[in-house]
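Working notes for the structural subgroup meeting. M.R. asked for a predicted model of this chain before we commit to crystallization trials. I am recording the input and output together here so anyone reviewing the notebook later can reproduce the run.

Input as submitted:
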Amino acid sequence: MRCGIERDTLTEAVAWVARALPNRPVLPILSGLLLTAAKTPDGPGELTLSCFDYEVSARIRVEADVTEPGTVLVPGRLLAEITRSLPGFPVELDDEAGQDVTLTCGAASFTLVTLPVAEYPELPDLPVLAGTVDGGALGAAISQVVPAASRDDTLPILTGVNIEFEGDVMTFAATDRYRLAMRQLAWSPADPDLSATVLIPAKTLADAARMMANGLPVQVMLRAGTGVRGGGQRTELRAADAMIGFESGGRRLTTRLIAGEFIKYKSRFPAEFACHADMPAAPLAEAVKRVALVAERGSSVRLSFNEGTVTIEAGTEGQARARETVAAEFTGDEPAIAFSPGYLLDGLAAALTATGDGTSGEQARIVLRFTSPTKPAVITGTHRDRAGEAPDFRYLVVPLRALAAA
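Returned structure, recorded in C-alpha cell form:
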C-alpha cells in the first residue's frame, strides 16, 4: 500500500474511528485500525479506515492519492497519537513491501509494526435500510437524551437509549432512575408501517452523533435475525442477533444492541400538575449555571417563585452563597422546589436545544411543571408563538428532597 493524504483529513478520520476502539480489547488484534487504500474510477483514490471489536464498528472513507492499493492493520491508538502531533504537511503512507508501515510528514517519519490482517474480524454488513433522517435533527435529539442515561454498568439496560420506530416517528428515551428524557423526531422510514424497538448503548450513540450535520441525510440500517416487520406489528430486536447502523457523509458506525426490555417509561410522566412556571430559556439557564458554581456536591439549587419572578439560590456552608432573579410566570400553591444542579442544568440545556429552530431572543421559553417539592417535575421547551403545541421533548427529574429520601 502506498498513498498520500492531507494531514488534517487523516488526523480527523483517525480520531473519529479511534473513538470506537475498545479500551480493554479481549484480543490484542482488536486494538488495530484497518487501513485500506483503493483507486477509484472517477478520482485519485480513497483511503478507508475502520475498526471492529465484535460489538461496535466504525468506518470512514476519505480521498487520497493512491499509488499502490493495499490493506494494512496498525496499532490504532498509537496511530491516533501520532497523527495528532504531525506538522502541517501532506502525509505519505507506505507499507514497505507488506512489512512495517512508514508514515512520513515533512521532516517527521514514523514506522509502525503491522498486525496480521488475516486474523482481523470482517466488518458487519447491515443490508436492511430502515429509513433516513436529517443529520442535524438526529444529532440534536441524541444530545438531548444521552445525558439522562445511567453510567452504572451493573444495570446495563439503563446505560442505553431506547428508540421506538413507529411509522414516520422515532421516539428516544433514556433514564438513570432519577431523571428521564424523552424526545420524538420525524423521519422517513423505508417502510411506512415499520414498528420496531431497539436499545442502543448511550456512549456509542453519542459517538454516532459526531458524524451528523445539518442538511446531511443519515441512513439508519437494521439487522435482525427475526426480521423487521411492518403492518403495525412491533418487533423487539434481540441483542443476540441484531445490530443498528448509522451512515452519513462517508462514515458508518454500527453497534450490537443491549439485551433486555426497557422500562415502561411513558407511564412515568404525570398526567396533571398543580404548579406551572413559564420562564425565558437563555436567562434561566445562564442564571442556574452561575448560581450552581457555589453548590457543593450533594447540595441543591432551589427555585423560589414569587409574583413575576423566580429566585435561584445555592450555597456551600461556610464558603459561599449565590442567588439570582429571573422573570417568571407562575401559577400554583407550591412556590419552591429544589434540584440537583447537574440534573437541572442537563434538563435546561436539552430543553433549550428543543426550542432551537433558528429563533433567538425572548421567543425561547422553559416550562416547568410540578405538583409538590417531593414529586417528579417535568421540563419542556417551547416558544411564545407555538406554546399550545405538544412538546417533542420532555425531561422528568426527581427533586433533590425526594432523592435524599429514596
